[in-house]
Sequence to fold (297 residues):
Amino acid sequence: MRIVAEHLSYVYNARSPFATKALDDVSLTIEEGEFFGIIGHTGSGKSTFVQHLNGLLRLPSSLKRRKKKDGVVLTVGEFDLTSKKTDFRALRRHVGMVFQYPENQLFAETVFEDVAFGYKNFADKKPERDEVERAVREAITAVGLDYGAVKDMSPFDLSGGQKRRVAIAGVIVTSPEILVLDEPAAGLDPLGKREVMALLHKLKESKCKTVIVVSHDMDEIAENCTNVAVFSDGKVKDVLPPAELFKRTEELFSLGLDVPLTAKLTLALKQRGVEIDCDYTMEDFVAKVLAKRGNVC
Ligand SMILES: Nc1ncnc2c1ncn2[C@@H]1O[C@H](COP(=O)(O)OP(=O)(O)OP(=O)(O)O)[C@@H](O)[C@H]1O
Ligand SMILES: [Mg+2]
Fold:
């Protein structure tokens, strides 16, 4: 499923003294199969944008009426999110949304019940017990947990990383084609971060066709993403693959953003007269540096 947004704007508390324009004429296409990154300073509209993708935030109805004139488009595959007739429950089965610190939303007495809730919540009719059990077992196994060992445990007795996996299981349990995650690795230790990113790649191969991550971690973006959208003040500044984006170090600094360590090292080497042309993954950076050294020797 392809995601297309054109001329998308969003104002919180419109028509009140507290109105905040969170999205300002955003146009963005995300192709099926991407591992898509969204970056931007605090308050730049990243979360507001992704919450549109499963209809959690909707276009105001006045805008829907005007959409033809304004050319506003928001489609996810066949779903037209500007239409009142859209089946938003069906959409949510296709677009799974993992919020920031999703473990804070675990609530059930057992891991099984928590993950099962995600399944029952989006089912059209009450599913059979066998069907729920199959889906929950598959989801818990897919996030790398031992179903037999954790299913009857309280989610609150798990480690931070395990809780986050359970929360992700509760979203992928409906087998969404698109998985959207707001800061999936935030607050985890370095190993936990690497494990979560590896898990997302595994899920992309086995279950979800497209993964979209919002992140402040530029190393994470450089290592994992196919394309990156840069948000600033509710607008999309650029959409580029990391290999192109992180060449623009100065521009990113001016937007209040960081760059990956590989980009900082590339810049430091350049200032010393050594040009490295890498894709900003650590592996490629090291390979290119070693190749340069070989040439010098
Ligand atoms: N529920 C809300 N009510 C009113 N204003 C909001 C609400 N949520 C966000 N905003 C405002 O909308 C703008 C965009 O916020 P958003 O949360 O989308 O940014 P963000 O890029 O996700 O930021 P962060 O990196 O801090 O998560 C900000 O000015 C924010 O203060
Ligand atoms: Mg946010």
About this structure: The chain has two domains: 3-243, 260-297. The chain has a mean pLDDT of 92. The beta strands are 3-12, 20-30, 35-40, 73-76, 79-80, 95-98, 178-182, 210-214, 227-232, 235-240. Residues 260-297 form one domain.
